Amino acid sequence: MSDSEVEFQSADEGSNGDDGWEIECDFDLPDADSSTEFKSTETKISSQQKLSNPVETEQNKKCKHEDVKPVENFPSDTSMLHVGLGKLAVSSNNTEQYEECNMIQNEIKSTRFLNNDWGGWSSGWSVNSLLSTASALTNQVSQGITSVIGAPAPEQLATVGSQEKVETFNETPADELPESSFGSNYFLTNVSQITKIVETTGSKIINGGLDTLETVGKKTFEVLQEGDPGLLKKRALFFQNNEKINLSQVLQEAKEKSEIKSQQNVNQVEVKKEYAYLLDDFQGLIHLESLELLSKQCQMKLQTVLLSYSGTQLTDIQDTLVQIKELCDLDFDDDEKLMDSEEFKNSLITCISHISVDVKTEKILRVSNFIDEKLNAQFNNEDSIHDEAISALAELTAAAMELFYKLGEMLMIDTQCQQIIIKAENLSLLNEAICCRIRFIANKYACLSTKFDADGTSNNISDIYLESSNSSSYIQDAGQLLIPILQLSII
Amino acid sequence: MADLMFDYQFRLILIGDSTVGKSSLLKYFNDGKFAEVSDPTVGVDFFARTIQLPEGPRIKLQLWDTAGQERFRSITKSYYRNSVGALLIYDITKRASFDHIPVWMNDAKRHIEPHRPVFVLVGCKLDLVNNGASKREVSQEEAKQFGAEHNIFTVETSAKTGSNVELAFSAITQEIYQRIKSGEYQMEEGWDGIKSGYSHHSANIDFNNYIEAEPAKSCC
Question: Which GO-annotated molecular functions does the record name (chain B) (predicted)?
């Protein structure tokens, strides 16, 4: 009876190969212990099975002999086996099961030795065994899941399924035995028997399988949702791992926070304007957001285009893309370099003229000059210097965002791809120039602050430097967003 | 500080042929000034203004001024999706710009899907016709008929005199607000067409509770 063996084997494979085990363990379920117990059961069964493998092959060889001899004690042997099988299928996975498995295994062996002559059988049974294997697998899996998840599960299903199967076993061989000796007649009835078995077992497998899957799905979702309604935490976790949060989102949140604060402070005489709020007010956020949109779009297009290349062509293109990226990522030698408005203007105009002539530099230059004017004005107190400084940094950063956004737009529709290297270099230089200008402004305001010797002076100064470094990193990040746009233009 | 206090934020997009006066219209709406000389728009420009509806809510309009030139079409299309309304702009002294309106409208409809945008049809350069400097090529009746066919509001404006400029923007805002009240529009995660403003946050929470309470009632 090779089918019972296959049953063991497949159940073993099924549970070991099942990814579900690991997932369940990760969630730290109370019944996690039982899963390991179950595993050990399977290993024992599989070791037993190794022993019986040679026997199986021996039997197969003998099956080739055509002489079919009815054996006297066959019916009693088979019925014994069925009882054993029934036990196995119904029993849950406690330790007693090993012994039962042992017993049954021995019975199977002995039956086989006695009946090694019923050749015609094996052909009919191989189909049946496949089907019963599959249904047994379903039962085993659902049992396993029940025990692991600890749910009141399709126990009924499992037991009913296996009992019915045992019944089919009981009926079919007993009916068929006498006929099997009549040769051709036997063959026809056997075929119809097989079709029946295929039908009934097939539908059982499908039903059982669907039920099991449904239970698995429901249970998994319940467990996942435990203490986490709407899966919010888990979603947040995945989001954190898989996706970089957009810079504009971060800034948006910061802005909202500062809005809350200023609303709370609305009754106070002096409302401290915060950097993120000011940046939005100067339209920095919206331009950054738009640039992100364009950048994402280009990134997606780039991926699609790359898919159409292969071999050396692909590596060539990838090399060029990397080269462009490296050019845009130029390290600045001098972190302390400063630029007054005149230097800034010259540097900016040179850079822009190399990237795109259509982009207007008036706005950022006007902002830069205006800041210079304000720096020369007289300040009454130290707090107003601080507020002016934060406002100036936010305004220049916002203007830079707009400039980068406009550059992005122009690069997208630009058709001159020959000067891509020059463009990348100048983009990097432009980035540096703006950061130098930011540093210059922060330094100036900090110097002005030191002339006053108020309580909050050192706090204010470090605040100015903090926002200056924030500005620089926003500008650099915005510059990075131009890379995919630039890369796309060479393809 | 005034900008802080708004109930909703709507994103609107201005579309239409090149040189019909989209940027001038927006400039007047934004600054109350007319620019005698105006450079062609590069890509998409951005403006924001908060307006107060007669019923009370303050609404921040984020306005996207798109370039009419064909070469910018691939860029301007990206901005359709996150808009809740579109101002279809034509030049009443230029027939072709009116004839292209259905194309612009279908473009917007297709890209704003699955959301159903609010449209208004805005004719520009009314002052040129009124002072006799140019000949009218699109009659008021034609525009009205188009508006009736598609069930959209129509208006003729002048960015130089400022006539009807305010009306064009408040009409579209009013219609969007009506659709929010009727429940047709809702704020959605990942769609920037409509956002609730800062002062609206507490009301928004009530709205969510209301949704959740609904099925419970039907159970009893």
Answer: GTP binding; GTPase activity
